[in-house]
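Bug #77: duplicate submission created two jobs. Keeping one. Sequence:
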Amino acid sequence: DELRFQALIRKEDVRAVEKDRVVMEEMFRVGDIVRGKVISLGDQSFYYLTTARNDLGIVMARSEAGNMMFPVSWREMRDPITGLGEPRKVARPF
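Kept job's structure:
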């Protein structure tokens, strides 16, 4: 698809503080929809993104059970069906 782009989010670009304490598996999961800012052009096949601002991060995600989740804080999203929360780097709403 000519309008589809790939991007990488490096561990040091996830948040502005406590960069050394970032655990990527607790920030993002495969399939999450992320609002990020392009900080660099990698090569012809991908971009580098940052989520190191409050308004950047996960905007939509599915739980391990497959249900759409809603944000409950800047670091957690919750499945409304199971009631279980999952860690994420959540974007502040507009």
